[in-house]
Design a protein that fits this description.
The structure is a single chain. By secondary structure, the chain is an alpha/beta fold. It has a single domain (about 10-270), classed as Rossmann fold. The protein is built from eleven helices and eight strands. The chain has helices spanning about 45-50, 75-90, 100-110, 135-150, 155, 160-165, 180-190, 195-200, 225-235, 255, 260-270, and strands at about 10, 20, 25-30, 55, 95-100, 115-120, 215-220, 240-245. Mean pLDDT is about 95; it is low at about 1-10.
Amino acid sequence: MSFESPTLQNAEPNLPPGMIQTGRGEPLVLLHGVMGSPAMWRETLPLLAASHRVIALPALGHLGGRICERRPCRLEHIVDDAERSLDALGLGRAHLAGNSMGGWMALELARRGRALSVCALSPAGMWETTKHFVGAKKLRVTAKVTRLTRANLPFCAKFGPVRRLALRDTAEHGERVPSSLLIEMADAVLACKVGADLLVTPEKFELLEANCPIDIVWSAKDRIFPPTPFAISARERIPNARHLTLADIGHVPMLDNPGLVAQTILNTIARSNT
């Protein structure tokens, strides 16, 4: 995958091959959503690297990540793999920011004592027994459409209305997304080997007493995990977190407003230093 900002590709054998590192300072680990990749952070990453050592981790079974040996793959396995990467990096704790599945991962890593702070953007796992199936259905449709249209995407992605349509479930302003990033995202969807497992996982997020600053951040225009009912559920399950809502952005807020997302993450980190 290619990032426009200067980055260092990982070459360590004990780390996932698609991991990205850049910047200096306190460590900040970025975690992407299901069927995604570190490319999801492409526009936000350089804004964070100005003040932090930023590490964008590819998830187990996803593009750039390690192969998943256990099937069906569960969120627990994804978190185990991320913790293995933290160990290989020599990071006992780090600031964590994640979107969707990545937000859930960040919260579970906090439960394990690995977080200095957590900014969870529209975190997954806040469903009851079946409430996540509506969003899961949309993501399955996205995967199917991507398989059918990938060959024509380099041409079609040049047009803003096409990008807006392609990203209608994950972004409020898909036309703002660079065509090259849309293509990288499509390739991540096609490369994901565990999406079908994770979209029907029986797991859900359990009660967490925060042991570090935690911000739960919802997107007002989220079509995958709308604030009602998911934000309500999150308040019940993480009662001592700070709960926020950002206007005019969709489920993957880094696509709509990378600057706002970067500042939101930095605001969370600042809370750990007060």
